[in-house]
Amino acid sequence: MATQLKVQLGPLKLQNPVLVASGTFGYGEEYNRLYDVSRLGGIVTKSISLKPRSGNPVPRIYETPSGMINAIGLQNVGLEAFIQKKMPFLRSLKGPRIIVNIVGDRISEYVELAARLEDVKGIDGLELNLSCPNCERGGIEFGVNPKLTAEVIRKVRRRTRRAIIAKLSPNVTDVTLIARAAAEAGADALSLINTLLALAVDASTWRPRIATVTGGLSGPAVKPVALRMVWQVRRALPKTPIIGLGGIMTARDAVEFLLCGANAVQLGTVNYVNPKAPLEVIAGLKSYLAERKLKSPSALVGKLQVPERLRGLPQVVTG
Ligand SMILES: Cc1cc2nc3c(=O)[nH]c(=O)nc-3n(C[C@H](O)[C@H](O)[C@H](O)COP(=O)(O)O)c2cc1C
């Protein structure tokens, strides 16, 4: 019984469950100089907006204990340049699924992005970055409101045949409400989590470390929060495909996400520290499964051992 890594994620077939996360892998080409990126399960592009964006003023990155805060501000080349200059390389890759992450300031922008990408060849799915302020609603993040989340997904659903992955914000009280709204509105899969709203301070200058004051925390520091959210969403939605991310550095971290209920994982911040980490995670996952005579990653999904008496209870949140 040979171990194999193929997984099915809703309508998407992946050669392995290891994807690279939006904003940490550019558009793939740069990393292809370091290793053969066609071995990845999937590549998620930097968030693409209708028009190019130059992002926030610097400093917009700060290293924290076991993590980093970023406030890049969705800098990207814009839809037209993405299609003309970045898609040809991505389209040439036969192995990985190509997921284009899209972002807008209003619902109509997500819809237009989906519509204009519909005839572009070589795209397997759209990941909707819902951690973005909605201009029409006073800057509230789409992903913190179940109604807005559902509305944007429903409207994008009407304009695309491609897989829709809703990328959820962790900056909410109950992530299962948003997850359910997204799934019911037509998302084929959910990815969680995006970065956690954070602040770092310089005690010498009394200034924030990031020009925009707050930014998003990522890396190993957020992993326990991400695992908790994946587990909660898996319990609430037993059938919905989930991509887990947040602080994955090693194959064992990826295994932890699968045990909590993720069907696949994305690697983000680690790409800055150890660019070959995705290949190490793919190889490590294969050995982990083979050593235990498990034939596929799905054998781990949701297998976290929780005592029966604790399964239906609300989570313990206090010390
Ligand atoms: C520098 C940086 C830029 C990011 N840019 C985006 C982005 O454009 N769109 C998006 O959906 N997520 C973006 N993210 C969030 C990551 O994709 C990921 O959700 C988050 O960092 C948690 O995973 P990690 O701890 O493995 O990095 C960015 C993260 C970092 C560190």
Model description:
It is a single chain. It contains 10 helices and 18 strands. It is of the alpha/beta class and 319 residues long. It has a single domain, classed as Aldolase class I (TIM Barrel). The strands form 5 sheets. The chain has an 8-stranded parallel barrel with strand order 3-4-7-8-11-12-17-18, surrounded by 6 helices. Strands 5-6-16-13 form a 4-stranded antiparallel β-sheet, with no helix packed on it. A two-stranded antiparallel sheet has the order 1-2. It is globular and about 50 Å long. The protein starts with 6 loop residues before the first strand and ends in an 8-residue tail after the last helix. Bound molecules: flavin mononucleotide (FMN). Flavin mononucleotide binds next to β6.
